[in-house]
């Protein structure tokens, strides 16, 4: 059986978990808790992923896979999930997934800045720069990507939904919905999917 090293609060892990729910293959994977931070890496991951980051997917037939996009592509291929469409549509899906992951990257850096860096060393302008990335990404989703978001479920949509949910989870007061009514409506609908409801992170 494959092992997924995970943290319940990681938005990158959540992408993988949503895929497993959407494909009905959650039972194929053993979940192994491996929480950590850049200052306190997860010891359980050292031999699996030298970056000590989750998610990491240990397979009986080959090396452990890491980086959420590698894992989701592998699992989608393995299970013929169709979450990465064939042809030119694949590039749109992968670009949208990269945009969602970029939102997550910026939001996570904001979280680390506020939680891990000593208060007297925090750089407000740098934090605002990360938020500006999120705001620009949301504006782009609102103006350019709504037709794709309204289409068949794919990994691009899952990545965006997990990213926006993480912004809500850690930076809700920032109000990403302001000026993005279509995106907000889409997210409210997508967030009600069983795969999203089943993977909500615990509070805290």
TrEMBL record:
Q: Which Gene3D superfamilies match?
A: 1.20.1050.10, Glutaredoxin (3.40.30.10)
Keyword terms: Transferase
Give the matching InterPro entries. Glutathione-S-Trfase_C_sf, Glutathione_S-Trfase_N, GST_Omega/HSP26, Thioredoxin-like_sf
Q: Can you name one GO molecular function term for this protein?
A: transferase activity
Q: Which domain of life is it from?
A: Bacteria
Quote a single Gene Ontology cellular component term: cytoplasm
Where does the record place the GST N-terminal domain?
1-83
Q: Which Pfam families match?
A: GST_C_2, GST_N_2
Name the UniProt record assigns to this protein: Glutathione S-transferase
């Amino acid at each position: 059986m494959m092992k997924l090293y995970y943290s319940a609060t990681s938005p990158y892990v959540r992408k993988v978990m949503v895929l497993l729910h959407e494909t009905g293959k959650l039972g194929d994977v053993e979940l192994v808790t491996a929480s950590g931070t850049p200052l306190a890496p997860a010891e359980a991951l050292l031999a699996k992923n030298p970056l000590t980051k989750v998610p990491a997917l240990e397979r009986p037939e080959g090396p452990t896979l890491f980086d959420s996009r590698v894992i989701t592509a592998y699992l989608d291929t393995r299970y013929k999930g169709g979450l990465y469409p064939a042809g030119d549509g694949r590039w749109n899906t992968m670009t949208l997934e990269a945009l969602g992951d970029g939102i997550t990257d910026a939001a996570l850096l904001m979280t680390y800045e506020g939680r891990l860096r000593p208060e007297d060393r925090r750089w407000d302008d740098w934090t605002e720069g990360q938020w500006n990335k999120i705001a620009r990404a949301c504006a782009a989703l609102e103006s350019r990507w709504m037709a794709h978001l309204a289409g068949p479920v794919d990994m691009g949509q899952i990545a965006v939904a997990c990213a926006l949910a993480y912004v809500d989870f850690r930076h809700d007061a920032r109000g990403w919905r302001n000026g993005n009514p279509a995106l907000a409506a889409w997210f409210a609908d997508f967030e009600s999917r069983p795969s999203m409801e089943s993977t909500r992170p615990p509070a805290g």
